[in-house]
UniProtKB/TrEMBL annotation, chain A:
Gene Ontology biological-process entries: aerobic respiration; respiratory electron transport chain
Keywords: Iron, Iron-sulfur, Metal-binding
Keyword Iron: yes
Needed cofactors: [2Fe-2S] cluster; [3Fe-4S] cluster
Domain of life: Bacteria
GO function term, MF aspect, one: 2 iron, 2 sulfur cluster binding
Ranges of residues in domain 4Fe-4S ferredoxin-type: 150-179
Protein name: Succinate dehydrogenase
Native organism: Actinoplanes awajinensis subsp. mycoplanecinus
Domain annotation 2Fe-2S ferredoxin-type: ranges: 18-103
Pfam families, A to Z: Fer2_3, Fer4_8
UniProtKB/TrEMBL annotation, chain B:
Lineage: Bacteria, Bacillati, Actinomycetota, Actinomycetes, Micromonosporales
InterPro entries xref list: Cytochrome_b-558 (IPR011138), SQR/QFR_C/D (IPR034804)
Top-level taxon of the source organism: Bacteria
CDD domains: SQR_TypeB_2_TM (cd03498)
Protein name (Swiss-Prot/TrEMBL): Succinate dehydrogenase
Signal peptide, first to last residue: none
Listed transmembrane segments: 12-33, 53-79, 99-120, 149-170, 191-215
Alphabetical keyword list: Membrane, Transmembrane, Transmembrane helix
Organism: Actinoplanes palleronii
Length: 247, 216
């Protein structure tokens, strides 16, 4: 298939940046979106141009590195799919496809489509941990977890921290990410000691990093490659309300 | 988060007021005597514990505070949202969520403008063609007379804006205050829609009745 892509090109953090149009020819419909960019980059390199910088790692939908807003939708048009798992057969021959980086003050562009997601690390550092004793490993089943809680915690723990929720949020809020971490740790017995301080500290870190406030619009969950449900934000809110009532 | 809790609580207070206000409005269908009697009773509400009009002013003060708190928190959160995305997307389709959710801010502005007009019209009477404090029934009938179609249109537009605002607002308040199950989410959204629809129908029934001559 032959398509046109309009890609955000920005040579560095201080460059203003612009959309640049490229023709991409003879792309297999079975190529992934990233492979299509790889092919485009090969032609750019052969032509002596700077290849398009983009984040990628596992290319099997589990690492959370790839981060492209495709035609205005984070990770593109397919539901619950990362960019690397999106295939060109979901586009039509002759399409013009817009590709932009995650747009958020907290995720500054490093180059082209690569953004700095350190802000997520800061949120995790603020409270995304548990205290565990050192020494020999504890006995298995020493702390029983109800199956229902284990399943719900696992569902939240599937968050790969890609940042699509922030990219999609009209308020540039990272609430779904933070809520996934709060839920994942807060449902486990091991997560209880820090449960109150965790929610307060992580929300503070989120605000300090320059993310916007959540207005429960639900754009985040629509684009989440792991389908993290919006209801987890209610759990975060509930935890927060209880935590400040105690403090 | 404190901002959002303030927004949710002030919003709920305002919804409660809207319901009480709507029930009062519907008394217009019982006729001029009942409606005027109800309107005068509002001034006496709280007596003899409180002097006449005191309760009314206390309620007005609380509602004004709630409106101010709601606007203040909305403004702070809006500014924060603008700062959180300094560079806009070149390609941005309409958000996938509901129309109600994405019109909260401008819808809120329309509602605020309407509240100002509504107070000048039917509370103080400055903008009302009759403006008779003793006979509110006559004020309402004169207000929605067919030749003042633009007033009726603005009223309808504002009420529909309130409906959309609450469709998302009631659900959002529940979520902010900790609603957290998927089943509860479906229920909260259904309740928000039902409460909004009842309000819209209830409020629009008054100008509609005046227009078709049921109330004159």
């Amino acid at each position: 298939m032959n398509i046109k892509v309009r890609v955000w090109r920005q040579s560095g953090p201080s460059d203003k940046g612009r959309m640049v149009t490229y023709d991409v020819k003879d792309i297999s419909p079975d190529a992934s979106f990233l492979e299509m960019i790889d092919v485009l980059n090969e032609t750019l390199i052969l032509g002596g141009d700077d290849p398009i910088a983009f984040d990628h790692d596992c290319r099997e939908g589990i690492c959370g590195a790839c981060s492209m807003v495709i035609n205005g939708v984070a990770h593109g048009p397919e539901k619950a799919t990362t960019t690397c798992q999106l295939h060109m057969r979901h586009f039509k021959d002759g399409d013009v496809i817009d590709v932009e980086p995650w747009r958020a003050a907290a995720f500054p562009v490093i180059k082209d489509l690569v953004v700095d997601r350190t802000a997520f690390d800061l949120i995790i550092q603020a409270g995304g941990y548990i205290s565990a004793s050192t020494g020999t490993a504890p006995d298995a089943h020493a702390a029983p977890v109800p199956k229902k809680d284990a399943d719900a915690a696992f569902e939240a723990a599937t968050c790969i921290g890609c940042g699509a929720c922030v990219a999609a949020c009209p308020n540039g809020s990272s609430m779904l990410f933070t809520a996934a971490k709060i839920t994942h740790l807060g449902l486990m017995p091991q997560g209880q000691p820090e449960r109150d301080s965790r929610v307060i500290d992580m929300l503070q870190a989120q605000d300090d990093a320059g993310f916007g406030g959540c207005t429960n619009m639900g754009e985040c969950t629509e684009v989440c490659p792991k389908g993290i449900p919006l209801s987890l934000i209610g759990r975060l809110n509930s935890d927060y309300r209880k935590a400040i009532a105690k403090s | 988060m404190i901002l959002k809790i303030t927004m949710a609580v002030s919003g709920i207070l305002l919804v409660l007021f809207l319901y009480v206000h709507m029930i009062g409005n519907l008394k217009i269908f019982l006729g001029a005597v009942d409606f005027d009697h109800y309107a005068h009773w509002l001034r006496a509400l709280g007596t003899p514990l409180l002097p006449t009009m005191w309760y009314l002013w206390i309620q007005r003060a609380v509602l004004t505070l709630a409106v101010l708190a709601h606007i203040y928190t909305a403004a702070v959160l809006t500014i924060r949202a603008k700062k959180a995305r300094p560079v806009k997307y070149a390609h941005r389709p309409k958000v996938q969520g509901s129309y109600a959710a994405r019109t909260m801010r401008w819808g809120g502005v329309i509602v605020l403008l309407f509240i100002v007009f509504h107070i000048l019209d039917l509370t103080t009477g400055n903008l009302n063609p009759v403006g008779d404090h003793e006979h509110p029934y006559a004020n309402v009938v004169a207000d929605f007379a067919p030749e003042r179609w633009y007033v009726t249109l603005f009223y309808a537009l504002a009420i529909i804006s309130v409906g959309f605002h609450l469709w998302h607002g009631i659900f959002s308040a529940a979520r902010t205050l900790g609603q957290q199950t998927m089943k509860g989410q479906r229920r909260a959204k259904a309740i928000a829609l039902a409460l909004s629809l009842v309000l819209v129908v209830g409020y629009l029934s008054v100008p509609f009745a005046v227009l078709v001559g049921l109330v004159d």
